[in-house]
Amino acid sequence: MNLHLSGHHVDLTPAMRDYVTSKFTRITRHFDHVIDVNVILSVEKLTQKIEANVHLRGKDIFVESADADMYAAIDALIDKLDRQILKHKERNFEHRGGREPGNLAQED
What we know:
The chain is built from 2 helices and 4 strands; from the N terminus they run E-H-E-E-E-H. The chain has one domain: Ribosome hibernation promotion factor-like (Double Stranded RNA Binding Domain), CATH 3.30.160.100. It is 40% helix and 34% strand.
């Protein structure tokens, strides 16, 4: 997984960078076919905003979150992203006939 972090009107501190990367391990724990993630952290007056564009195989997912605290916005974004990725994973699983990608054995 390639993770690209950028800030708009905000300086990315090493603590913020570590916090975001540690939170994205939750996403890869549920779904390990994540190709690329672009994250933009921005500040608009009193609102801290974070956006993520996740590139999966066959689909792009865009999620954004805003809060008064940047760390709370990051937590909300990860929750939203986790729900969308799990939904994508379930749809993909059902589309394949309920089989895991590595399990090719037929049941009798």
